[in-house]
Amino acid sequence: MNRIAGGAVAAFTVLAAGARLAWPAAEPPEQEKAFQEQVRPYLKQYCAGCHNARVKTAGIAVDGFTDAASIAAHNGEWEKILRKLRTGEMPPTGLPRAPQEKTNSLVTWLGSELDRAAERNPDPGRVTVHRLNRAEYNNAVRDLLALDFRPADDFPADDSGYGFDNIADVLSLPPVLMEKYLRAAGKVSREALGRVKYDPVLDRLNAPRDVPQTGLISDAAPVSSRGGMEVERRFPVDAEYLFRLRVRGSPDPQAPDVLDIRLDGKLLQRVDINFPASDEDEDRRRFEFRLPLTAGRHTFLATFLRDDSKNETATLDFNANGTARRNQVGVDWVEIGGPFDPKPNPETPSRRAILTCTPGPGRTEDACAARILPRLARRAWRRPVTPEESTKLMNFYRMGRQDSGEYEGGIELGLKAILVSPNFLFRVEQDPAAAKPGSTYPLSSLELASRLSFFLWSSLPDETLLSLGERGELNKPEVFEAQIRRMLKDPKAHALTENFAGQWLHLRNLAAMKPDPEKFPGFNQGLRQDMTRETELFFEALLASDASVVDFLDAPFTFLNERLAKFYGIPNVEGRKFRRVELPDGSRGGVLTMASVLTVTSYPTRTSPVIRGKWVLENLLGAPPPPPPPDVPPLQEAGLGTTVSMRQQLEQHRANPSCAACHAKMDPIGFALENYDAIGHFRTKDGGFPIDSSGKLPSGSSFNNAAELKKILRDNPQEFVLCFTEKLMTYALGRGVERTDKPLIRAIARDAAQGNYQISSIVLGIANSAPFRMRRATQITSEGPPPPAKPASKEKPNAAE
User: Fold this and answer.
1) What Å distances lie between residue 167 and 110, 157, 323, 762, 776, CA to CA?
2) More confident residue, 429 or 652
3) Which of 163, 666, 672, 695 could form a disulfide with 709 if both were Cys (CB 3.0 to 4.6 A apart)?
């Protein structure tokens, strides 16, 4: 325990020492002198007019801060002051401002003093009992049982707090979820052991009529292809399955269409579709295959080969805006039937993962069960299993053995018991018996293994990490860092893309966006998928190359396929496969001008400079505006784009004094993105009005368009790096960032600056920080319980306008 404590405290001391090395701290008399000569006069001249005991704007009265001791005593208020000064939000526009050098000096000194105060009283915070969310449950089942099955998709949606759905305080346990857990554990146990009896069924999947056929092509199709339909499905058991499809429409009699049919990329059949338009013979329109498949995911694809030698009006697959140029033939529907003649107890990866001991000569059924169940429980519960727990699992095994009359029936019930145990469903970190209320203590090596695994993989520790945790090896800095770097390179780190980036960038919201089809006929399911894929590939590329986090703002490349490249107006990109594309100018590049982000920050019928500006402030700059007052009238929609421009309408809106302060921060950022319509397509006019995308930030920096705004943010990356670090720390800890965490976040960002803000340096900084490696014991105070977690923001129409 002493070694663990030494490692954790040393990690925190190193980060705190980074603050001292960057900004030397004065001795107390000099500290007080600096406060009286520099800080207090600054506050009196530039801040006290609004922030005083009488007015107390924003709940802060600086006239009460009379000495340097107030920094430690009121560090929450001082953190707010520091952020406002650092971002240039205060003093407000129009009021006297200090020379920038004077403000910079104050920001530097104040930051160092806040860090010194935190160093004297380190507080790692406390994470409550943490229920596995849906993604973590699915991934845990996958990694424990080698089972490609997502049982948690049937669970109720997880609540979110602070922008993420892995926040322990808001992951409640409604009664319906307990019922789901019991049902899922039984189904998972049967599926994993292959003990499910399947009757053949026939499912028909109709091709969406509102989606251009080109929207359904996958990378499994030939490069030169168009149209068709793709179906990816999990097949539960080794068996034969039926695939049947029907072609609709009228082919060109002078140039037959060529239908290409594939399974998992392998060609099944290629046939000319040349029947006359009046021919309704089903034998000519239908194609059928009966194939043996192994259990797991398979992709069935039927697509039409593109022939660019045909004339323009009859052939080309889609226009620049994504709409189909013709729809003469297409796949009407695909049917999938089966399983037929499933193999009994096939040798699947799941069975191999579970049945590591086979009863036979010298090995009784009970002896094998006594080896199998504790081994599975150890992985599932992320810790060694006690003898008492092993005995209980064997009791379940014997009950299942007796009821089913089969050895595997006993294993099934024992596995079900493992999966419904609170040891699997919850991440529990126990306070040491000797820990005093409110004291801090280091996590055990096993608890560190779990925290690290759920941070980077959203799943259980693998055998390597779990074994190191059991041996206490994760205390060693070189071992701990090596494991982080290994885990970041593992395919399971894709969880950071799905669960961190998907929520940080609001990418998950794209699936629910419904742009007006009359205003944006080019938007379809295929384009939606391409937008999502671009952002995912971009995030994964930066993570894999350990790039600078600043590249999220304005990287000179992205990932495109032909459809998305045409949508962006970028030439010389052909085919459905995504590939890295160097960008010709700053109009694209970075997440800010990606179609996915631009779409989720718009209304179905129009853009919203307010929502876009608010999104940037919240997710890129860490300076969210307060919620709008309840009596603010909505933006007047009538005449937008015809008699009044968006900028003119918002200028009238800002005339309301209760709106002006917040809109002065949000609107200029949103105006910079007005060249992109509600689905991210570039434009120069909004209706009949030329777009003016110029603006000015609270700091005084001016820009003329999105490219110049991105350059300003990239050239001054501190606020973005601090925001990214705070978001990632929130996700890593599973709790909201508290004021006591702010000095650590600054220290991590300063340390990362030495390596050009590489992503790994921020991940390592978070994993080595006191909040990640330590915990505060339960403390009962007169103040009562902590405040509830901040819910995820939900946009309402015109709520900010």
Assistant:
1) 31, 13, 41, 20, 17
2) 429
3) 672
pLDDT (tens digit, 9 = 90+) per residue, 23-81?
A: 334 446 788 888 887 888 888 888 878 888 887 887 888 888 888 888 877 877 888 88
* Distance of alpha carbon 421 from alpha carbon 434, whole angstroms: 27
Q: Which residues contact 150 (CB under 8 A, 6 or more apart)?
A: 138
Domain definitions of the chain by residue range: 2-120, 201-340, 509-715
DSSP secondary structure of 367-434: HHHHHHHHHHHHHHHTSPPPHHHHHHHHHHHHHHHHHHSSHHHHHHHHHHHHHHSHHHHEE--PPPTT
Other CB atoms within a 10 A radius of the CB of residue 228 amount to 28
CA distance 351 to 191: 9
pLDDT, position 628 = 74
More confident residue, 502 or 230: 502
Query: Greatest CA span in the chain, whole angstroms?
Result: 96
The answer to whether the CB of 225 falls within 8 A of the CB of 303 is: yes
Question: How many C-beta atoms surround the C-beta of residue 384 within 10 A?
Answer: 12
**With contact defined as beta carbons under 8 Å apart, do 170 and 160 qualify?**
yes
pLDDT at 279: 59
Kindly indicate whether the domain formed by 201-340 is annotated with CATH number 3.40.50.
Answer: no
User: What average pLDDT does the segment 263-274 reach?
Assistant: 89
Q: 366 exposed, middle or buried (CB, 10 Å; 0-12, 13-18, 19+)? A: middle
> Collapsing DSSP states into helix, strand and coil, what is residue 441?
strand
Of 366, 331, 342, nearest to 293 by C-alpha is 342
Ramachandran area for residue 162 (φ above 0: left; ψ -120 to 50: alpha; else beta): left
- Residue whose entry in the numeric block shows the structure tokens 């010298």: 362
For 153-167, give one letter per residue: b (16+ CB within 10 A) or e: eebeebebbbbbbbb
Task: Give the whole-angstrom CA distance, residue 506 versus residue 256.
Answer: 44
Report how far residue 514's alpha carbon sits from residue 600's, in angstroms, rounded to the nearest whole number.
10
User: In the prediction, which pLDDT does 595 show?
Assistant: 98
Q: In degrees to the nearest 10, what's the CA dihedral of 628, 634, 637, 641?
A: -30
User: C-alpha dihedral over 94, 100, 104, 105, to 10 degrees?
Assistant: -110
Check: CB of residue 129 under 8 Å from CB of residue 426.
yes
Interval 437-490: pLDDT, tens? 888 889 999 999 999 999 999 999 999 999 999 999 999 999 999 999 999 999
Q: Beta-carbon neighbour count of residue 732 at 10 Å?
A: 22
Is residue 132 within 8 Å of 380, Cβ to Cβ? no
Nearest to 230 by CA among 332, 142, 303: 303
* Of 743, 720, 741, the residue nearest 730 (C-alpha): 741
